[in-house]
Design brief:
About 15% of the residues lie in helices and about 40% in strands. The protein is globular. The protein has three helices and 13 strands, in the order H-E-E-E-E-E-E-E-E-H-E-E-H-E-E-E. It is of the alpha+beta class. Strands 1, 2, 5, 6, 9, 10, 11, 12 and 13 form a nine-stranded mixed β-sheet that branches. A four-stranded antiparallel β-sheet has the order 4-3-7-8, with no helix packed on it.
Length: about 210
């Protein structure tokens, strides 16, 4: 279960990195980029998707000093305080965020303007904001309907390929070379399963797990 949770975070970060260069947010001196998306996670083809929100932030601050994150939508008065944000850094960049935001009473995440606040260990605050724009009709679609909808709106299809112990082998555009199970196995002979990951503005759709060898 722990590896599954880590992979959810990693997939979210990979998605964030794939869209960050074509997304904009008004930034302060300490927040370089921020992005929010609603995740529609299909466990099977029969049920409606499980939904959650995810926010990721690129910051020039030392992430070890980050204490909490506050996100607020003024129009709906929805507010989230994240006391244990995800922290990740490379030699060049630092990221923080959270990939399991739940809307109150399972209501839809509203479109529009959101305030974003990072609070560090010294209780200093750094402010920014972002906007959310996605099709709220996605909440009411089963898998077959979602497939049709995503193609209609020209969403971007990606693929995430896993080993048997749930490590991520590849995440990226689903090219013709990765169109079938046999082609995936030809390129990644230790591949065990995969998921289609569709991205459309501030919405991400995770299709059910498919197994390479059945």
């Amino acid at each position: 279960m722990e590896s599954v949770a880590k992979n959810k975070i990693l997939i979210s970060l990979l998605i964030f990195l794939s869209v960050i260069f074509c997304s904009c947010s008004q930034v302060s001196t300490r927040i370089d980029n921020s992005f929010f998306y609603v995740v529609f996670d299909y466990v099977n083809s029969k049920d409606f998707p499980e939904t959650r929100g995810a926010v990721y932030i690129e910051t020039t601050d030392d992430i070890r000093r980050i204490d909490s994150i506050i996100i607020k939508n003024n129009e709906s008065n929805l507010e989230w305080k994240i006391d244990e944000p995800f922290l990740y850094s490379t030699k060049e960049r630092s990221y923080t965020g959270y990939s399991n935001l739940i809307s109150a009473d399972n209501t839809k995440f509203p479109n529009g303007f959101y305030e974003l606040k990072i609070i560090n260990k010294n209780q200093e605050e750094h402010d920014s904001f972002f906007t959310v724009d996605y099709d709220t009709e996605l909440y009411n679609l089963r898998l077959t309907q979602m497939q049709q909808k995503l193609k209609k709106i020209q969403a971007e299809e990606n693929i995430c390929i896993y080993t048997e112990d749930n490590r991520i082998l590849y995440f990226g555009n689903r090219s013709e070379e990765l169109d079938s199970r046999s082609e995936i196995y030809e390129h990644y002979n230790n591949a065990f399963s995969y998921r289609s990951v569709w991205i459309a503005k501030n919405a991400v759709c995770l299709f059910p797990v498919e197994y390479i060898i059945q």
